Amino acid sequence: MSTAKKILTNTIVQIAGKLITAVIALATVNILSRYFSTSEFGDYGTIYEYLALFGAISDMGIYTLMLREMSKTEVNTAKLYARGSILRIIITAISMLFAIGIAFFIPAYLFTNIPLGVVIAAIGTFFILMSGTVSVVLQYALKMQNYAYALITGKIFTFLGVVAITQYFYPVVDNIHTGGNAPFFWILFLGLLGSFIIMGITYFFAEKEILLKITKTSFILSERNKLKKLFLDALPFGISMFLTTFYFRMGFLLLGWLLPRSENNSDIGGEAICNAEFCGDLESAKYLVALRMMEVLLYFPMFFMNSLLPHLTKTLNQKNSETSENKQKTLSYSFLFMIIMALPIAIGGVLLATPLSGILASEHLLETNFSSGSDTAFFFLAFALFFAYLNIFSSFVLIALNNQKKVLYSNIIIVLIGLALNIYLIPQIGLKGSAISTLITEIILSFLLFYHLQKIHRFPLRYKYLFKIILSGTVMALFIFFLKDIIIFTIGKYLAIVFFMITSGIIFGGILYYTNFFSNNIRKFLKKD
How far apart are CA 476 and CA 116, in angstroms? Predict the structure, then answer.
């Protein structure tokens, strides 16, 4: 099988696996949004969003750097993996301990379930990050279907546990779940166990590719210089990843940090008053649904670029003058395929924001005449998705070209802009301000990264193909816009989403085919190594 076909196959396998796990995860969100009170649901999301910041610190870009280095023929894969694993275990353990310690001193989290929840969830986060480290071996071998098996198994276990907790052990009685705080912590513990299962299965499959040994202290000491070099090489991209995660999630976290909790307003009417005054826990609960949908949709470009990265690194770093045209084709066609993924997803998200959010969120989390809801946030985040896809493409190409510092500098600028926007807009318009800030920062970042990329390694945009993609997206958008209300009214929001997913895919792909988008040049590119 050609390299291009292996990359596409590996990407499709990962997408299929993630689609299954995403459906399970979203089904879990659906259950919990109806089971927990609004405040509890906001706290539940806060725990994982808070830990995601420290998860980004612990990654330090080591996964991506290991994947890039493994593509070099002179590298000893087993030793590189050992170094990367040691480094990531140390950094992850330290970052999770810091996360636990800091959570107990954040004023907004005092006297809530959040600090103890962070303790439980941090252990699960450690396991899931370790499984990601092990999976780099499977990614390099283009056998990520095994990692998909691990993820599906772990997620199914957690989901079944959540069903048991919410339906049998602590059911809802008179619109309030029984058990007090117990189900909240049991559900977090189930997530921990699911993460441990994922790590164990991933390790089992990865050991078949290279021998994974428990590293001895003598190896660590003998490799300390190389460990230091790996750390310093990864540091710029690691900081950049943290900044990317921070600006992506800071809106959610700042809702809780800048706004009062609903309990603070109990003397003037409780949660009903908070719909107008933007209480942090309630706004966070609404925003969480939109953020989860955006995260799931960001899996697709990440898998595509992770699968492409080893081949991209080899191609872009070849010194022969004969490969110049091949480099340009690789970048141009990869960019086009990223647009093909981004445009229909963004269009569908914007036009179907309300029914999509309604599938996951209970009615009290959706927009009303008096307050914004999950669907309001997702409307803006769906716009942001298009630019986020382009940012992922540009970031990975800059990494392949060993210019991760450009990604770092761009992200520093974006974090400062995003922080200022959120601090100003959140007190004024609540979660809508957070979503608008995310959209603006994604747009600015896309221009910054693309400017750096074109300056370092210019490639043609191939406007003829771009026009065909835009034409396909326009027809698809018109189809959804004029038919969505009557279709939703006729068959309901659940079947309507399925209907539009199928028909929009046919329309978008059909127009690409009819306009001869898949010309001989693109077909040759896909077939060649």
Answer: 47
Please tell me the number of Cα atoms within 13 Å of 119 on its side-chain side. Answer: 7
- The reported pLDDT for the residue numbered 45 is 92
pLDDT at 139 over 90: no
Beta bridge partners of 177: 172
Question: Looking at the chain, how many residues does it have?
Answer: 529
Contact indicator for 253, 50 with CB cutoff of 8 Å: yes
Three-state SS annotation for 138-196: HHHCCCCHHHHHHHHHHHHHHHHHHHHHHHHHCCEECCEECCCCHHHHHHHHHHHHHHH
Residues 6 or more apart in contact with residue 256 via CB below 8 angstroms: 42, 46, 108, 280, 281, 284
DSSP class of residue 529 equals: -
Instruction: State both tokens at 209.
Output: 């590719």
Over residues 247-264, mean pLDDT: 84
What is the CB neighbour count within 10 angstroms for residue 70? 22
* Residues 148-176: tens digit of each pLDDT: 888 899 999 999 999 999 999 999 888 88
How far is 52 from 67, CA to CA, in rounded Å? 22
**Partners of residue 172 on adjacent β-strands:** 177
**Residues 22-74: pLDDT tens digits?**
889 889 988 998 899 888 999 999 999 999 888 877 766 665 666 566 555 55
By three-state DSSP, how is residue 367 classified? Answer: coil
- Angle at which helices 77-103 and 114-140 cross, to 10°: 170
Q: Which two tokens stand for residue 124?
A: 């699960």
Q: CA angle, 300 as apex, 411 and 307 as ends, to 5°?
A: 85
DSSP-assigned beta bridge partners for residue 173? 176
Residue 504 and residue 475: Cα distance in Å, rounded? 9
**Looking at this protein, which amino acid is placed at residue 210?**
I
Tokens of 12: 């499709």
DSSP for 430-474? Answer: THHHHHHHHHHHHHHHHHHHHHHHHHHS-----HHHHHHHHHHHH
SS (H, E, C) 191-217: HHHHHHHHHHHHHHHHCCCCCCCCCCH
Instruction: Report yes or no: 63 and 132 within 8 Å, Cβ to Cβ.
Output: yes
pTM (2 d.p.): 0.82
Q: What is the number of H-type helices and E-type strands within the chain? A: 19, 2
For residue range 446-461, list pLDDT tens digits in order. 999 999 888 888 787 8
- Candidates 71, 65, 64; CA nearest to 6 is 71
φ, ψ of residue 172 to 5 degrees: the values are -80, 130
